[in-house]
Design a protein that fits this description.
This protein is of the alpha/beta class and 272 residues long. It has 9 helices and 13 strands.
Length: 272
């Protein structure tokens, strides 16, 4: 994992996963050092990842007051229960549906939960965080937020895009890609992560982008994209194109067998 600052009081805890044929998918969590510090998502649910050890290099865990769970998919919840145990004053910001989904694996302690719906706001001591539903999402309970003080938008999965290398996924910026490269990878991600985009009324979908345009964040922080600084107009234009992009079709069994065969010496499948 790579740790770096974005702006004056936001830290990126950057990880990634390689998906053959797709690229290196960034998996970011964030720390917002507000008066009441906020941890945004808690990393991958993989045994070799020690999210708390990484987080503790950025903030004293006793100081964490809020854990903003943008949605309860496994690439967002890796360290959540360990963090709740290590940060006794922290509460999980989620929705009724988010808490319900978490309960199918391990229930959140309800006295440690704070329900916040899109359209509502919360005060974290020195700023207000405005909750909203991003235009693109893969989980129906997704809630991102806008930090009015820093003009940073935390967009969850929306605006994601696989990167060509792990270094760029974890240590780079979206600005490192040429505009056409960024557009291509973000449209790929949109069709993988939000396949429903090809089934909805395009005009109704595009209307959901307008609140973000009015918000006009200076920095966009997605779970699955390196930080994007002063690129909002370009990225909004890109996701506006998502309904017209080609649907993603993943590898079938024949492609899987060919892939497995390529892993063997000489490109031959293993003997059975």
């Amino acid at each position: 994992m790579d740790i770096h600052k974005v702006g004056s009081d936001t830290t990126v805890l950057a990880d990634s996963l390689e998906v053959p044929g797709v690229g290196h998918i960034p998996v970011n969590a964030y720390v917002l050092t507000a008066k009441e510090p906020v941890v945004v998502d808690t990393g991958l649910s993989l045994s070799e990842r020690d999210f708390l050890a990484t987080l503790s290099t950025v903030i004293d865990l006793d100081d964490v007051r809020w854990i903003w769970l943008t949605h309860p998919d496994r690439d967002h919840t890796g360290g959540i229960f360990d963090l709740l145990a290590a940060a006794p004053e922290a509460k999980v910001v989620t929705t009724f549906g988010g808490a319900g989904i978490m309960s199918t694996e391990r229930p959140l302690p309800m006295n440690r939960v704070y329900f916040l719906n899109p359209g509502q706001s919360m005060d974290v001591g020195d700023r207000t965080l405005d909750a909203f539903r991003p235009p693109l999402f893969d989980n129906p309970v997704t809630v991102g937020f806008y930090d009015e003080k820093t003009r940073i938008c935390f967009s969850s999965d929306c605006f994601g895009g696989p990167m060509p290398t792990a270094e760029l996924a974890e240590s780079g910026h979206a600005n490192d890609l040429k505009p056409e490269e960024l557009r291509r990878t973000q449209l790929l991600w949109a069709t993988i992560d939000s396949p429903w985009i090809h089934l909805v009324d395009p005009a109704k979908y595009r209307a959901t982008i307008e609140p973000l345009r009015e918000m006009n964040p200076e920095i966009v922080l997605s779970t699955h994209l390196p930080p994007a600084v002063r690129m909002t107009d370009l990225m909004l234009e890109t996701i506006t194109m998502a309904p017209d992009s080609d649907p993603f079709v993943g590898p079938d069994q024949a492609a899987l067998e060919q892939m497995l065969a390529s892993f063997e010496p000489g490109g031959m499948p293993a003997a059975t």
